[in-house]
Amino acid sequence: MQLTSPSRREFLSLTAAGSLLAAGISYAAPASPLLANSTQPHTPPPRVAHYQLLNVRLEEGFERDGKEVIATRTALYDITIKDGTFAAIDAAGKARNTNLPQWDANGALLLPRTHDMHIHLDKTFYGGPWEAPRPRQGKTIMDMIAREQVLIPQLLPTSQARAEAIIGLLHSKGTTEARSHCNIDPVSGLKSLEHLKLALANHAEFPCEIVAFPQHGLLHSKVDGLMREAMQMGVQFVGGLDPTNVDGAMQASLDAMFQIALDFQRGVDIHLHETSPSGVAAIQYMIDTIAKNPQLKGKVTLSHGFALGTLEGKALDQMITGMAEQQMSVASTIPIGKLTMPLPQLQAAGITVMTGTDSVIDHWSPFGTGSMLEKANLYAQLYRGSDEFGLSRALHIATGGILPLSNQGERQWPKVDDEASMMLVEASCSAEAVARISPVRATFHRGLPVFSA
After folding, report:
1. Where is the signal peptide (predicted)?
2. Which residue, 67, 184, 257, 358, has most beta carbons within 10 Å?
């Protein structure tokens, strides 16, 4: 039996090449397909429901010098995958079944898949010719919005193809699911959303929540009606943007956003970049609004939330307490700059903190790589996680809290019957993977390979 499964080049070809060519963007296809059902290196894993991964490296525990964690102990295992879950986890060579397709991981480290909880798949330069953003010095957010109003019509013809190209990129970095913001604006109407939904329909192996995002201002661009149409198209979250700096009316803007969420029983995910007192006031207003509308509790995400980085002491503690009481979550790109986000303090209070790419490359920023391991690396750097234990713990920000070892050093993932969404990386342990941003060799969604190098 011969089984085909895409290599890295093939996978990117399959996900993006056809639509890129249709859009007039050149793309080089691989010379020939690769065949699986083999233990030879560089062949892709079998794309079947029941198979074995051989010689997979799993973390077993921490090694200590006194109380200090100084290393991570690992061993090789053979793992049986069946119907999207871990069916068996055995010491390497102990329970091999030659009647099943097999793939040799050659000692690559198995880690949980990552997820990207803040990205814009609908508008990007990725997949097209190189184009750096124009200078930002002296530009306001309204200037950037004006620039986008010119760009969006130029990007729309290839937006589906480029979204699919980014999905391929994310898979190559170990990510199997995402939350994407999608422009709802007078320039594109619902076209950006329609194109994004078409892209996602071609990739059932990439579950993605969608946020209807009024990038040009909910009130400023008068898109309340379009936002409601987006809800009728099955969008999961109502978005918002800087209610004071863009809409010029904090309470009215937030009230309009929350009203859509209440009317359609959806969640909220708002971009809040404001670092002035208006940003602090907006967060407090959100806390108060959720308290008055308990059906919103646990359904509101604060994206960016830079105003939190301006608070300290009692003021910060009180704000975090309020957010925790209303079960708000935070999506942060883990920015490095003058302000440091209080992410550990948020997490210590029980607030879910997620991370994401934001943009891979667009007119806002050219620096996105699509790697959530890179985000874990930034987290470790910012919050003093340079030792073995701290590096291994930093992985949580990329995986939604899933870690191979508990804080006590006991293996807690993977376990039999867990969902087999995972990645194989060229690293000896998770600490090394985070510190060195190790290359991903293969990515699996519910047991099926979606990428292999």
Report:
1. 1-28
2. 184
